[in-house]
Amino acid sequence: MRHVVVGTAGHVDHGKTSLVEALTGTNCDRLPEEKARGITLELGFAVWPVSPQLGASVVDVPGHEKFVRTMVAGATGIDVVLLCVAADDGVMPQTREHLDVCSLLGVRAGVVALTKCDIADAETLALVEDDVRDAVRGTFLEGKTIVRTSARTREGLAALAAAVEGAVKLSAPRAGDGPAFVAIDRVFSKPGAGTIVTGTLSRGALAVEDAVTVLPTARGDATSARVRGLHVHGAAVSRAAAPTRIAVNLKGDGEGEVARGAALASEGWQVPTRVVQVDVRLLASAKGLARRTAVTFHAGTASVPAVVTLIGAESLGPGEAGVARISLRAPLATYAGQPFVLRRAERGRDRTIGGGVVADPHPRTTRGKAAGATGTVRALVDEARYAGIAQGELVRRLPPLTDVVTAARALTRSGAAVEVEGRLYPASLLAEAERAVLECVRALHAERPHAGGVMTAEVETRVPPRVRALAPVAVARLVAARTLAQTGAVVRDASRGGFDPAALARVGDVYARAGLAPPLDEEARLASQLDARAFRDALVELKRAGTLRALGGGLHFDAAALTSLEGRVAAHFAASPTLTPGAFKELAGGLSRKHAIPLLEWLDTQGISRRQGDTRVPGPRARR
């Protein structure tokens, strides 16, 4: 099941909270003042099982103009926006500002919910829909679905769920490995548990007992803690991956120093900053921006007074983009590529004027043409660490005319960085990957003392996720250093005895040629001309590699033949409601009872079929 974060947006009193309650059964207004006044003042959260294939963490935001700061915090890290427009009111100022905020934060998927449709006539609904289409023209919501809904009558709720699922399918999933980053939006404590923080895990993954950094603390610095417990959607988990809402129980010296607006990050990945370099774009509706302007800088759940200083330009006009340096009045945790929003006072109130992405969280005071570019690229590579960074990302995040290609080449030649599949990683991570690969190979040798080697594919999937991208390079370097020995797709600790990979090929060939009518194991051993130990070791490796599957009764089947059989049986059920034993034997190529029975039972366990008397009917996987 895929998980996403869905956030509401829209003007005050446009039915966001009521709609979320109708969809999820959760009233997100938990504060007494919210219930008394009938408006949302704080962020609310709910769990929404959109479909069997999609689960969502819902963030409900306040719509009043006084709480746009809170809305920005809630919109951070969402995958899909649910823009709510009341049928009796139409597009209003906060509708437009919330849409601007979502655009600036990089949200690219969404659905428009026309709320309160039960109190509007057909003519009014048509006019409001035209109003919405005009408002979203030129934004990521242009041409997207507008769903008529009513929280009271439940009109359109199923259609809304389908529209959200459709929007998710068009969006790219976020990486669930690499360093974690959680913008903290709520802090509380429980007797016996200590400090608990909640927020959106917007990148990376966290696990129980992980070491983390809380930054900035109430003192303005960073402090270390450890993950005592994790909850996702109210259930305890051992590991969580982005994107999802998460509750983290902290333990350590810094657990009492946490406040809303801080961030939780994988240990050693982040340090607070007071100056960031950014790529910034002004809204077309904003006033121009002078070279030095006082603003409020919103990133994650933090909002910090700041001064923006343009680089290479005296001013920016409405709708224009440029490069700027942001001087912050308080320390902030941020990373390269993080979206931000700028707001400033205009005509007596704060207004959203623009935003963009952080290019460099720790820019140098002076920067030369070549050496400076190399230093900046190295800083971004080191910061990206486990996730790596592509040259295209570097080009987008650095000032115009920066020679990214030359800087990246200098880093790889000097050994400060390594390039894998177009992404740059710090060299220190490669050393960590080599240690992980060697430990994995030795652990697999201990598990299988009779096997002379292990498949490289298994090693690459067994190492920790944070270094998995570098595993192939680490294997190659260890082989070159003669720490590992390699024969074909099999590696071993060089201090151990050898292993003949030809044995794998011979055994695999016996089963591949036999297809759905394999010999008994002893017959297969004789056919492969191997002794009992070599044959047993080859079977273990082939099963671990997924080439063979054991179905019981001393029978192993070629995995490709089983996959082909699944497809043929599913196709049969598409044309016929039942499958008789005779029809199955014919479908599988005239099998004997010895092979037909374990295959039918296996199809039942895979959900392709289900036994009903003497016949089979479609299982849940065959109905998809």
Structural summary, described in words:
The structure is a single chain. With 624 residues, this protein is α+β, with helices and mostly antiparallel strands. Among the domains are: 168 residues, P-loop containing nucleotide triphosphate hydrolases (Rossmann fold, 3-Layer(aba) Sandwich), CATH 3.40.50; 86 residues, Translation factors (Elongation Factor Tu (Ef-tu), domain 3); 88 residues, Translation factors (Elongation Factor Tu (Ef-tu), domain 3, Beta Barrel); 86 residues, Orthogonal Bundle (Arc Repressor Mutant, subunit A), CATH 1.10.10.10. It is 33% helix and 32% strand. It has a 6-stranded mixed sheet, sandwiched between helices. The chain has a 6-stranded antiparallel barrel with strand order 7-8-14-11-10-15. It has a 6-stranded antiparallel barrel with strand order 16-21-19-18-22-23, surrounded by 4 helices. The longest helix has 21 residues. 46% of the residues are buried. About 1% of the residues have low confidence.
Task: Reconstruct the topology from this structure.
Elements: E1 2-9, H1 16-24, H2 32-37, E2 44-51, E3 54-60, H3 68-75, E4 80-86, H4 93-104, E5 109-115, H5 122-136, E6 146-148, H6 157-169, E7 181-190, E8 194-203, E9 205-207, E10 211-215, E11 223-232, E12 235-237, E13 239-241, E14 244-251, E15 263-266, E16 273-282, E17 289-290, E18 292-299, E19 302-311, E20 315-316, E21 321-332, E22 339-346, E23 349-360, H7 371-384, E24 389-390, H8 391-397, H9 404-414, E25 417-420, E26 423-426, H10 427-447, E27 454-455, H11 456-462, H12 471-480, E28 484-487, E29 490-493, H13 502-514, H14 521-528, H15 532-544, E30 548-552, E31 555-558, H16 559-575, H17 581-587, H18 593-605, E32 609-612, E33 615-618
Parallel strand pairs: 1-3, 1-4, 4-5, 5-6
Antiparallel strand pairs: 2-3, 7-8, 7-15, 8-14, 9-13, 10-11, 10-15, 11-12, 11-14, 16-21, 16-23, 17-20, 18-19, 18-22, 19-21, 22-23, 24-26, 25-26, 27-29, 28-29, 30-31, 32-33
Helix pairs in contact: 3-4, 7-9, 10-12, 13-14, 13-15
